[in-house]
Design brief:
Hydantoin permease; about 0% strand; globular; disordered N terminus
Length: about 475
């Protein structure tokens, strides 16, 4: 598809009909919206029970309340990165999975998007569907439906079907309903938090206070778990791409970052406080079960509704952007069939996890391993948009011929691929999890430096190599 062909078709971006547009370039006449609209789009997915779960994990790691909250605030600063790259969407007028051709080359980008678009997309679909499956199943168990297999599977299928439907209607519906969802979810979770606060042990101290290397190990592991959320949203350009080309990148960055960071800080901190009032047996049963036991009978179903709405908000966005990733790879699919395929894969993975793990175990392991890919990829994207100053030519991005601007070396951008591989390698050897501890992490007392070192290496390698002949773009 050439840039000219991409502009010829006309699409309607409305909340009342399915969006047929995929990665096609959005012409200036079709641009609409304001940067501040993005705040609620990112806030709705962020009001999540997953934040409660992650916050509770920080207490399990042995941190004091103030230490855990300090780590949360530090990790929330990483939301600036999805904000920075979001403005590349309006600049190019297309999906971020097409913009990354400028970083990895025409062929290299196919592999990158296949892995990142599918891996990160499928993991987050399954992880958030998992939360609603566990809580929905627990609620139904309390009213007599206690089949341990078919009840959670049934909840998963119903929630995923609604999610896929929202993704099919696409951008227009997301812009229309997400502000409403954000307000409803905020009210529900604030009410839930109100019932959690009386159970908080404000004098809480860790059973075995940490110090020295042990403290830094717990802090760094907690930071990595938290960092995986903002660093995974490399799809932020997809949501912003309809904005007018003249929209200020700083405004887009601020709305995106604040929309993601504020609920992240508030409700992850509530998760920290929740954990101080729970016994060890409560963690073994699951955070979802523990929450139900703390709430009055009438509020349990309301919380489940909130979890389901949040799941739909987050996963509809993920399914929506992942469908365009399939198109960018080169599959000759319209966006709607692609969205259905992504949703079916995510549903299958969720059902497997429902039958094989707990929410806490699944969340911690998946979130830590995600940074091996997401951290370096985010660093490379940020360097690219800053060095180009948000100048992306859509004609060049859609020119996939040999010798085109982003063909680079045999279709591969050596700077981008080398930075991603080296950054991922450094991340892996510095990572510390229950099932894997990299040699560097192990040698320094399991202090996890995977996120900062992996991102620094990826950004440095890409910035330096892009200035050489390896990063030269071919133009007539």
């Amino acid at each position: 598809m050439s840039g000219t062909q991409a502009r010829e078709e006309q699409f309607v971006d409305a909340s009342t009909q399915p969006e047929t547009r995929g990665i096609e370039v959005i012409g200036d006449a079709e641009r609409h919206g304001r940067a501040r609209d993005l705040f609620f789009v990112w806030a709705a997915p962020g009001v999540s029970i997953l934040n409660f779960t992650i916050g509770a994990t920080l207490i399990l790691l042995g941190l004091e309340i103030w230490q855990a909250i300090a780590v949360i605030v530090a990790a929330s600063l990483l939301w600036v990165f999805p904000g920075v790259i979001a403005a590349s969407g309006p600049a190019a007028g297309t999906s971020g999975s097409v913009v990354t051709r400028a970083m990895y080359g025409i062929l290299g980008n196919k592999l990158f998007v296949a892995f990142v678009g599918w891996f990160i997309g499928a993991v987050f679909l399954s992880l958030t569907w998992l939360a609603s499956s566990f809580m929905g199943a627990d609620l139904l168990r309390r009213v007599g439906l206690d089949d341990p297999v078919w009840v959670p599977i049934g909840v998963t299928i119903v929630v995923s079907a609604v999610t896929i439907l929202v993704a099919i209607f696409g951008h227009g519906l997301i812009l229309r309903i997400y502000p409403i969802l954000a307000i409803v979810l905020f009210v529900i979770f604030i009410v839930v938090s109100g019932f959690i606060l009386p159970t908080v042990d404000w004098q809480y101290t860790a059973p075995e206070p940490l110090g020295g290397v042990e403290l830094w190990s717990a802090v760094s592991i907690g930071f990595t778990i938290l960092a995986s959320t903002p660093l995974s949203f490399i799809n932020s350009p997809d949501i912003a791409r309809y904005l007018p080309r003249t929209t200020r990148p700083a405004d887009i960055a601020a709305a995106t970052a604040l929309g993601g960071a504020l609920p992240f800080i508030v409700f992850t901190s509530v998760g920290v406080l929740l954990a101080t009032g729970l016994k060890a047996s409560a963690f073994d049963a699951g955070i979802d079960v523990a929450l139900f036991d703390l709430l009055p009978e009438w509020l349990g179903p309301v919380l489940v509704i909130g979890v389901v709405l949040n799941t739909i908000a987050l996963n509809a966005m993920t399914t929506y952007t992942s469908s365009m990733a399939l198109q960018a790879i080169g599959f000759r699919l319209k966006r709607i069939p692609a969205a259905i395929i992504v949703g079916v894969v995510g549903t299958a993975l969720t059902i497997y996890l429902v039958l094989s793990s707990s929410l806490l175990q699944a969340a911690n392991l998946m979130l830590q391993f995600l940074v091996i890919v997401s951290g370096p990829a985010m660093a490379i994207f940020v360097v690219d948009v800053l060095r180009r100053r948000y100048v992306y030519d859509s004609v060049d991005l859609f020119d996939t011929r040999r010798g085109a601007a982003f063909w680079f070396t045999g279709g591969w951008s050596i700077p981008g691929v080398a930075a991603l591989v080296l950054g991922g390698f450094v991340t892996a050897v510095c990572l510390s999890t229950d099932v894997w501890s990299g040699p560097i992490a192990a040698s320094i007392g399991h202090i996890d430096l995977s996120v900062p070192l992996g991102m620094i290496v990826a950004a440095t390698v890409y910035a330096l190599l892009s200035r050489t002949r390896l990063g030269k773009e071919e133009r007539p």
